[in-house]
Design brief:
Elements lengths: L4 H6 L25 H8 L1
């Protein structure tokens, strides 16, 4: 069992973009899998 929920989230590895593989600068528990740069590129 996890003793401290905050410790759990601090220890998560950085999230990677599904398109380019770069680290995503956001909260790791977020559901997004594509970085802002790739997301803008797709929508153009």
């Amino acid at each position: 069992m996890v003793r401290n929920v905050m410790e759990f989230f601090r220890n998560l590895p950085p999230k990677k973009c599904a398109e380019c593989g770069d680290n995503i600068e956001e909260q790791h528990e977020c559901y997004g899998i594509v970085c802002d740069r790739c997301l803008r590129h797709v929508s153009e």
